[in-house]
Write the structure tokens for this entry.
Amino acid sequence: MGKVLEFSGPGLSNLSLGERATLTNMAVEAGAFTGIIAADDVVVDYLMSARGLSREAVAARVVLPDEDARYAFSLALDLAEVPAMVALPGDPRGGIPLALLEQQLGAEVRIDIAYGGSCTGGKASDMDLYASVIREALARGLRVAPGVLFYLQFGSQSVRRYAAERGYIELFERVGASLLDPSCGACIRAGPGTSTSAEQVTISAVNRNFPGRSGPGRVYLASPLVIAASAIAGKIVGGLER
């Protein structure tokens, strides 16, 4: 029987609305119909701004779990103990700690494409993350590694405006990234960012890496921070190395 994943706990308070959307988006990979997070001030403030509603009007529609609610299963995670992860090619459920990637494969993973986009990697909060790595790279005189195609796709026109207002577009272009307007993209093998041969390796912030979905090559899934750092290094890394 299908179930719904409910995420809760103090760790959520540090997640932006966009990051919460990514979390619930991926609930289906755990076999759930969907994922839900009870609304808090982050959600209420967003709806007040986006819809022009009063706090009282939004708060009146908030639904919270009953204090005595019963669940089929509960799992508690200490987020401080969760390492940076990467999903191996072929299945988004095939996640392993990034620190163990080279050990498991027996070699570093060189890349041909780094792609930041999709509903899981093209949000305003993601642009903040790409920019944080790229700003550091430029300060150290680094650019996109030779032979690597680095794509950044805005999830919406409002995200593009957000990036422009903060000077991110200039940063992205200076480091050597190709910027893509909002649309369906490499996530569904549409447009730039898709592989063209089975030998190509992509590190991607899209939501799913099933065989063939983003072209014939191998696709690893990772966070925006890893995408940007890997584009600079030319291989999958967790931080700037060159």
The chain has a mean pLDDT of 92. The first strand starts at residue 4 and ends at 7. The beta strands are 4-7, 34-37, 85-87, 95-97, 113-116, 149-153, 178-180, 201-204, 218-221. The radius of gyration is 19 Å.
